[in-house]
């Protein structure tokens, strides 16, 4: 896998990343794992989540360049109606 994003952002990622092929299913599905280390404190959850999201977007772009399409699984969405009543002054 192309690891340019990780290598071009050394301020965010340590250079010791690794890609592992976990399983091949039905000759047309590969399960892989990407192991990487942030250069920041693990307790900074907000920044860690932001970096991880950026990495996922870069991986998606890389696969699209290779002609590999990925569709997200359906996700549950909950909508809650909130009725706010306001009293008008007389």
Automatic annotation (TrEMBL):
It is a multi-pass membrane protein. GO terms for cellular component: plasma membrane. One of its GO terms (molecular function) is mechanosensitive monoatomic ion channel activity. It is found in: Membrane. InterPro entries: MscS-like_plants/fungi. Its main location: membrane. GO terms for biological process: detection of mechanical stimulus; monoatomic anion transport. It comes from the Eukaryota. Belongs to the MscS (TC 1.A.23) family. PANTHER family: MECHANOSENSITIVE ION CHANNEL PROTEIN 10 (PTHR31618:SF20), MECHANOSENSITIVE ION CHANNEL PROTEIN 5 (PTHR31618). This is Mechanosensitive channel of small conductance-like 10. It comes from Actinidia rufa.
């Amino acid at each position: 896998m192309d690891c340019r994003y990780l290598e071009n952002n050394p301020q965010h990622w340590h250079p010791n990343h690794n890609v592992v092929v976990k399983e091949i299913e039905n000759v047309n599905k590969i399960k892989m794992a990407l192991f990487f280390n942030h250069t920041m404190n693990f307790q900074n959850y907000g920044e860690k989540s932001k970096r991880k999201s950026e990495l996922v977007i870069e991986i998606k772009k890389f696969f699209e360049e290779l002609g590999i399409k990925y569709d997200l699984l359906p996700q549950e969405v909950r909508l809650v109606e909130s009725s706010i009543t306001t009293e008008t002054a007389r």
